Amino acid sequence: MTGTIARLPDLGWMLHPLIAIPGVRHAVVVSEDGLRLGHASAEDLSGPVAALSVGEAEALSAASAAMTMTGRSTAGLLFGEGARIRQIMVESDLGFVLFTHAGAGAQLGVATDTAADVGLVAQQMQLLVAKIGAQLSAQPREQAAPTS
């Protein structure tokens, strides 16, 4: 049995309101299982990652899925099985990375520098999810039929 692989639409265009916020460097839309659905970088950036490449966005997507699974395990341990992860924040010496639930099966990630207003970024992430959450959602992939 031969199947076809459907190309996922690039949802990076939806991220432009986020990358326009001062201090925001990159944004990514990620499926729950770590597939990159789209990404965007602010203009005129300098530093080690001036523009997020597809490979870097895919690595960030995979990291997002791993952090979410770890967060889900931690929340389940502390608050019970039904506890869902709404947002994860990682702080480094050079900035912040925020991941938030963005509809069924999807997450939204934003990387900032240290000068960013993280509260404003988190608020704008939530507003974007509320505004276009249906487009950010990722349908579960179909199970492959067993081969004989």
TrEMBL record:
Cited InterPro entries: Mycobact_SerProt_Inhib_Rv3364c, Roadblock/LAMTOR2_dom
Gene3D superfamilies: Dynein light chain 2a, cytoplasmic
Domain Roadblock/LAMTOR2: 12-112
Cross-referenced PANTHER family: SERINE PROTEASE INHIBITOR RV3364C
Official protein name in the record: Roadblock/LC7 domain-containing protein
